[in-house]
Amino acid sequence: MKVFVTGANGQLGREVVDELLKRGIETIGSDIQQQTDCKSEYIQLDITDKNRVMSVLKSANPDAVIHCAAWTAVDAAEDNALVVMKINAEGTKNIAEACKELNCKMMYISTDYVFDGTGDIPWKPDYKNYAPLNIYGISKLEGELAVVWNLEKYFIVRIAWVFGRGHNFVRTMLSLADKHENLKVVNDQIGTPTYTVDLARLLADMILTDKYGYYHATNEGGYLSWYDFAVEIFRQAGKKTNVIPVSTEEYGLSKAKRPYNSRLDKSKLVENGFTPLPDWRDALNRYLKDIENV
Predict the structure, then answer these.
(1) C-alpha separations of 9 from 3, 6, 28, 280 in Å
(2) At what angle do helices 91-102 and 50-60 cross, to 10 degrees?
(3) Which tens digit of pLDDT belongs to each residue from 13-32?
(4) 136 is catalytic
(5) Residue 82 class from Cβ within 10 Å (0-12 exposed, 13-18 middle, 19+ buried)?
(6) Are 70 and 113 in contact (CB under 8 A)?
(7) Residue 93: inside a domain
(8) How far apart are the first and last CA of the chain?
(9) How many CA atoms lie within 13 A of 260 on its CB side?
(10) For residues 249 and 182, what is the distance between their CA atoms, to the nearest angstrom?
(11) 3-state class (DSSP) for residue 8
(12) DSSP secondary-structure letter at 264?
């Protein structure tokens, strides 16, 4: 099997490439940058260049594409709507059309932000009453629709609260803890973290099957707030920082609206024979040990 991975220089894409290579799967990584530390064969690719996408994928002729490339800066997206839509919507459409031409599988990494974030009931993967609150969510939903309209052999995997290599909430909290004794963190946005190392293992498991459709994938361990997550980060890291719970309204600052309810129902994973991700506390423990050694 040969798998083509977009966004191979990103937080998730790196882990996906590493996981595939670990399994002995022929892998080609791609991203917009010319320089890379990608461990697989690498091709520079701007996914917004439709002709280039078609040419590169036809030449590579993969059995599957795992599409990790995306604009993910949520607040910055509000001031860059055209660029964000070009990358997340049009870029994904370009990949989907190439996969259609090649008759190969496609896996698209999406987000809890496609939902409106209301209520307190976990979102089912096949729930279709979308109402994204911000430009990023709109662009990712458009990407989902491009995949569905073009393909039958697809996986759409929604994730949330991602942490791994690169910039993320855990690193931000640890950095702030070195500068402040007290930190305010919102306690009315509820979800579950997703560790890229664990997610990459699941994605590799999935791409080897034909169990297509919509899925939700975050770590196990129940639902929590960003405040709860911060408290556990400092506990495990041995920090004495005082975390003060505040509402989203009290916190302010964010340009893009955030969903209050990011609870994702992951039961479909087990129903289809996939192994769920480990408890988020265990994932955090492994992550903290990993960055200690960097």
Answers:
(1) 16, 8, 12, 24
(2) 40
(3) 999 999 999 999 999 999 99
(4) yes
(5) exposed
(6) no
(7) yes
(8) 32
(9) 9
(10) 19
(11) coil
(12) B
| Residue 256 banded pLDDT, cuts 50, 70, 90 | confident
Q: Are 271 and 213 in contact (CB under 8 A)?
A: no
Residue at token pair 């259609």: 100
Domain annotation covers residue 183: no
Among all chains, which residue has been given the structure tokens 């995306």?
A: 70
Q: Classify residue 254: in a domain, yes or no.
A: no
Task: Pick the closest to residue 26 from 9, 4, 42 (CA basis).
Answer: 4
Residue 269, helix vs strand vs coil:
helix
The enclosing H or E element of 174 equals: helix 169-177
Of 136, 154, 195, 287, which residue is the catalytic one? 136
What CATH number should be reported for the domain holding residue 53?
Answer: 3.40.50.720
Instruction: Return the SS3 of 62.
Output: coil
Q: Which domain holds residue 274?
A: 2-167+192-220+264-278
How many domains does the chain divide into?
1
At residue 293, the pLDDT reads 58
Q: Please give the distance of CA 193 from its chain centroid, rounded to a whole number.
A: 10
pLDDT tens profile 245-254: 999 888 877 7
Can you tell me the distance from the alpha carbon of 185 to that of 243, in angstroms, rounded to the nearest whole number?
Answer: 7
